[in-house]
Amino acid sequence: MQFKSTRGNEQTSFKEALFQGLAPDGGLYQPVTEPDLRSAIRSISRTTKFSEVAEIMTAALFPDEFDPDEAGAICRAAFPFSPELRVVDENRSILELFHGPSCAFKDFGASFLATVMESHLAEGNRKAIVLTATSGDTGSAVAQAFHGKNNIEVAILYPSGRVSPLQEQQLTTVGGNVTALEVSGSFDDCQRMVKEAFVDPALSRELNLTSANSINVGRLIPQSFYYIWALAQLKDQRKDRRNDGLVFCVPSGNFGNLTAGILAWRWGMPVNRFIAATNANDVVPEYLTTGTYRPRPSVRTPANAMDVGDPSNFERLRKIFADQNLEMGSMITGHAVSDDEIYRTMRFWYEDHGLMVCPHTAAGLMASEHALKGEPAGTGMVVTLSTAHPAKFVEVAEEAVGVRPEIPRRLARVLDLPKVSVPVTPSLESLRSVLLERYR
Ligand SMILES: *Cc1c(COP(=O)(O)O)cnc(C)c1O
Predict the structure, then answer these.
(1) For the chain, N or C: smaller number of CB within 10 Å?
(2) Does residue 360's CB lie within 6 angstroms of at least one atom of ligand 1?
(3) Distance from the CA of 254 to the center of ligand 1, in angstroms?
């Protein structure tokens, strides 16, 4: 599979796109051709394990990059965990994506990326240093995914005192090849320092720096696999319905998850449409109705992993739909959910279904209900993606339902481990000297 930038026409290999992250012209990599995966998708049944779905898709998408054995080895290594589908009733189900190591859907993309990078580095006998900034959720998925990978060191910058205590424990207790850099500044400082490091001559001379952020195609593409897995799970249920398409509702911030669903659709996955659920940061729903894109500073909400005022993947979506909001709107319906609705939805699902959901999932469930009301009866099951475990957002959950969520063992475990971080001041000089000292 070849890639090209959303801003240019030069073709790039998967490997290059993987290690570069962002295209040199500042655009995002996009597949050049759209493979037809309909027969591969049809070959997947209810009993196909998620790692096998991933293997089938990887082999079909990357015939030039991986032979079938390699695709199998990569997917078995990357996915010891799986999504789970909770069917609520004949119109509703919830696709739980938080059963991986960091308890959020980002584990799927991060783990695939880490495994593929390790495999490429082993081939060339090279080393790489993954440098990434986090405001919370991304960092823990990256830390878990890259932990113990050969030939890779990971440095994660996070703003001191500005991530939740649980998130800080998740970042700072992994150890081994994962170093947490505690920056005495804001998340914006962390992002700026990472950007400066990538163009710093001294660092690029000495170190092979690479990134692992969410725009990387190595994270984007595997996120399409669970849509296809979910579709197969619901195959039997849909048999005798008039219209067998599904509607996927995706809680969205940077729109990577939704873009991956759109890719699956372009490759032949049958789907009626997508609902883009946002919190009060509603630039995309606004674009879909008005045709005007007005990026703006984000506002804080209880679903803070979706607090994005200028979604990075919007550029990809825009390109796919030829810059036409009506065309995008024929496949994606936007729906913004208020803070109050997020709290109320969490309470509703807890009281009426005995189900504790995270605030992001609640935004999705609220948007789904809205969509179901507008549907002619029996039109199609709405599958809402559940993006994180509620225990990652204890304070919000407690405020919404008055009960502390049960903490899964893999999260509880990190609470007792000793925190180890390297203090860094918010300047390139400080970052440079730490990186050179540790990795040169
Ligand atoms: C990152 C994240 C989102 C937003 O996903 P995008 O791909 O950026 O749209 C939603 N929910 C949770 C819990 C997240 O961590």
Answers:
(1) C
(2) yes
(3) 7
Question: Using a 6 Å cutoff on CB, does residue 255 contact ligand 1?
Answer: yes
Compute the distance from residue 283 Cα to the ligand 1 centre, in Å: 15
**What is the widest separation between alpha-carbon atoms in the chain?**
64
219 lines ligand 1 (CB under 6 A): no
Identify which of 337, 360, 394, 411 to mutate to test ligand 1's pocket (most ligand atoms within 8 A of the CB): 360
In this prediction, residues 158-172 reach a mean pLDDT of 92
Q: Which atom of ligand 1 is nearest to the CA of 260?
A: 7
Higher per-residue pLDDT: 137 or 316: 316
**Cα 395 to middle of ligand 1, angstroms:** 18
pLDDT digits (tens, 9 = 90+) for 84-124: 999 999 899 999 999 999 999 999 999 999 999 999 999 98
- State the amino acid at position 13 in one-letter form: S
pLDDT band at 242 (very low <50, low <70, confident <90, very high): very low
Give the tens place of pLDDT for each residue, 313-330: 999 999 999 999 999 999
CA–centroid distance, residue 123 to ligand 1 (Å): 32
CB within 8 Å of 111: residues ≥ 6 apart: 78, 79, 100, 101, 141, 144, 145, 222
DSSP per residue, 203-234: HHHH--EE---TT-HHHHGGGGHHHHHHHHHT
Does residue 253 have its Cβ closer than 6 Å to ligand 1? yes
**DSSP one-letter string for 146-213:** HTT-TTEEEEEEEETT-S-HHHHHHHHS--TTEEEEEESS-HHHHHHHHHHHHT-HHHHHH--EE---
More confidently predicted of 195 and 360: 360
Contact 37, 12 (CB under 8 A): no
Residue 422: name the closest of 158, 189, 215 by CA.
Answer: 158
pLDDT in the model for residue 373:
86
Q: What is the pLDDT of residues 271-282, one digit of tens each?
A: 999 999 999 999
52, pLDDT greater than 90: yes
For residue 278, the CA-to-ligand 1 centroid distance in Å is: 10
Q: Amino acid identity of 233?
A: Q
The number of C-alpha atoms within 13 Å of 316 and in the hemisphere containing its C-beta is 28
Catalytic residue (choose from 15, 49, 106, 235): 106
Q: What are phi and psi of 62, to 5 degrees?
A: -125, 55
Angstrom distances, CA of residue 260 to CA of 171, 176, 264, 274: 26, 31, 6, 11
106 as an active site residue: the answer is yes
- pLDDT at res. 22: 87
CA distance 350 to 368: 17
Ligand 1: residue whose CA is nearest its atom 14: 305
361 in contact with ligand 1, CB cutoff 6 A: no
